[in-house]
Write a structure and sequence with these properties.
This protein is mainly alpha-helical and 184 residues long. 59% of the residues lie in helices and 0% in strands. The termini are far apart.
Length: 184
C-alpha cells in the first residue's frame, strides 16, 4: 500500500515539525511575550507530538503478531518512559546545567536554548531514522495470526498462584478456582 508508506513518511515529516517547534523554543528569551513567542512554538511542538504518537504506536503494534501485541505495547510504553527519563537527566547536562546552576536564573536562561537545540537535533535524527527504516508493509500485512490449537492434556495444568489456566475444559464454564482432581 503506497498510501500507508506515504502516511508513515508523513509521520517522519511530523517529527521534523516537532523538531522545528523545539528550535522555535530555543529562540525564547527572558522578557519575550507569551502570545508572540512562547505560544507559537508550543503550538508547533504540540501539533507535531500529537499527530506523531498515533502512527508510531500503530507501527509498533502492527509490526508484531497479534498474540504479542500486549508485550509490544508494554515495550513501547517502557521505552517511551525511558526516553523521557534520559531526556530529563541528559538535557540539563548537555546545556551545561548541574549543581548550583539550577539556582541561578541567568544560567538557566542561557542553558534553555542549548537544551532545546539538542532536543531538536534528537527529533531530526529520529525523523531520519523513521524515514529510512520503516518498511513498506508494516501496516498493510494481512493477519499473521495463527489459529490457537488445543493444548495436550499434559499442558492443561496450572498453579493458581502463578496465574490463570492456559486452557479451560471445553465442557465447563470459566471458573476462578483451580480444577479438582477427578477420581477414577
Amino acid at each position: 500500500m503506497d498510501s500507508v508508506r506515504q502516511w508513515l513518511r508523513d509521520a517522519s515529516s511530523i517529527a521534523v515539525l516537532t523538531g522545528a517547534g523545539l528550535l522555535l523554543m530555543a529562540q525564547i528569551h527572558p522578557g519575550d511575550g507569551y502570545l508572540t513567542t512562547v505560544l507559537p512554538s508550543l503550538i508547533v511542538f504540540g501539533v507535531g507530538l500529537g499527530v506523531l504518537i498515533t502512527p508510531i504506536t500503530a507501527t509498533v503494534l502492527a509490526s508484531v503478531d497479534s498474540r504479542h501485541s500486549g508485550i509490544a505495547s508494554a515495550v513501547n510504553n517502557a521505552l517511551s518512559r525511558l526516553g523521557q527519563m534520559i531526556a530529563v537527566a541528559a538535557l540539563p547536562l548537555a546545556a551545561g546545567l548541574s549543581g548550583s546552576a539550577f539556582e541561578d536564573p541567568a544560567r538557566m536562561a542561557a542553558g534553555f536554548p542549548v537544551a532545546m537545540t539538542v532536543a531538536a537535533g534528537a527529533s531530526f535524527a529520529a525523523a531520519l531514522l523513521a524515514w529510512t527504516t520503516i518498511s513498506n508493509d508494516v501496516l498493510s500485512r494481512s493477519g499473521t495470526q495463527q489459529v490457537p490449537q488445543e493444548l495436550p492434556p499434559s499442558l492443561k495444568r496450572h498453579c493458581p498462584v502463578a496465574g490463570t489456566p492456559l486452557a479451560a475444559p471445553l465442557n465447563s464454564p470459566p471458573s476462578s478456582r483451580p480444577p479438582t482432581a477427578q477420581e477414577p
